[in-house]
Design a protein that fits this description.
- By secondary structure, the chain is mainly alpha-helical.
- The chain has helices at 28-37, 40-54, 57-80, 85-111, 123-151, and strands spanning 23-25, 117-119.
- The chain has a two-stranded parallel ribbon with strand order 1-2.
- The longest helix is centred in the last third of the chain and has 29 residues, at 123-151.
- The radius of gyration is 18 Å and the shape is elongated.
């Protein structure tokens, strides 16, 4: 069964008179793996940047709001449940994979139906994500005992 392309409701804000030139955007694979390995906010930020680069500002806002909600809601639900670390990790990984597929199978083809783009390098973003992840891990290790002491 072939997928049928549906034109997005929103048009890019900057319409060019010439034929559309290929633009540098983050690839489907980059968006998927950033979502899976980090979280939906990271993958959503890459997709949001792609959408802003081609002029879909409203869609970019929709994607980032979706990615934040898709990150926060499972965290809130799992925070209420008594799960062990492995089950928690597997559920979050499953949620990240689900978000990655939503990004690359729904949002990406909706706004980038053709392969008329050049993949943008991910190395600078990867470095920033690793540094941010390490900083967040250090902060959580520092503040977790303080919060646990106040809860008791």
């Amino acid at each position: 069964m072939e997928e049928q392309y549906i034109e997005p409701e929103e048009k890019p804000e900057e319409e060019s008179q010439d034929e559309a030139e290929p633009v540098d955007i983050y690839s489907r694979q980059a968006i998927f793996w950033f979502t899976v390995l980090f979280n939906p906010i990271f993958g959503g930020a890459l997709l949001m940047q792609n959408l802003r680069d081609v002029g879909y500002k409203k869609a970019a806002n929709t994607v980032i709001i979706f990615s934040i909600l898709y990150f926060v809601i499972p965290q809130l639900i799992l925070g209420r449940l008594q799960t062990n670390v492995i089950a928690y990790f597997l559920i979050i990984l499953g949620c990240n994979v689900g978000a990655g597929f939503i990004f690359i199978d729904y949002f990406f083809p909706k706004y980038f139906p053709d392969n008329d783009y050049y993949p943008k390098s991910i190395w600078r973003v990867l470095f920033r994500c690793i540094i941010l992840g390490l900083l967040l891990a250090m902060l959580s290790n520092y503040f977790a005992p303080l919060i646990a002491a106040k809860v008791k």
